[in-house]
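Its record is quoted verbatim for completeness.
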Amino acid sequence: MRFTKMHGIGNDYVYVDCFEEPFPVDPAGLARRIADRHFGVGGDGIIFICPSKVAAARMRMFNADGSESEMCGNGVRCVAKYVYDHDIRRERQLQIETGAGILSLELEVEAGKVSRVKVDMGLPILSPEKIPVKLTGAAGLEQIVNVPLADQIPLSDTDGWQQRCGLDPRMTCVSMGNPHVVIFCRDVQAVPLETIGPIVENHSVFPRRINVHFVEVTSRGEVTMRTWERGSGITLACGTGASAVCVAGNLAGNTARTILAHLPGGDLTLDWAANDHVFMTGGATEVFSGEWPE
């Protein structure tokens, strides 16, 4: 099976061109094997670029643990780059079918190759039932904005990490086709993400698990964020997460509707536009190609 390794500001996946390769019988098992960073190719998961009847291509993604996810903002930028650079559809405006719907993308091309991609991430989903989030003692709540964490997810603080990071003990939840919880703090580097991330991701409040983001606000237009990604763990970047942070920051009163987000792998520009669609702009990079022996 031929594959291509790509990343969007460090959020790396193994990509398989299913215009040329057959879709695997066991994509979940393949994802676990090929994404292993010691015994496989290594990555946050695997993304299949498939034919579509309604768009230039269809994207299906499986996380490193084998679970299938609806969408990945960094991943869809790489899909668009692959579709253009490998002559599947040589157009600077593309539509890609995802598990979260059909997304429109604008491609920036340099020397015949895609360098950056602007993605219309669509409308954020704020209804608790649709994210989904099942809060206790909060019937009738229309949005989950600045909800006290302790009321829903009591987090152990035996070593004083909450004080060290200046935790704002409230959460805001947004879906960008996949679920996200956003928690603000003064210093994201002081958050023990490897410990807190899986506790929050798998809490019963989130029936489909959730992507977890801790966010440090520099100014109304600039943030730094770290991510525990559902099914993959700590990742260098999360495009849907950055989009959710843009929405959550504004709803929580912390940021403007346009922000520059610094992620461990690089920067993304987010704009929650007047039509309420979120637009994300960032890079996409092809690293290498190879052949998987199965």
Notes: The domain at 147-276 is CATH 3.10.310.10 (Diaminopimelate Epimerase; Chain A, domain 1). The chain has a mean pLDDT of 96.
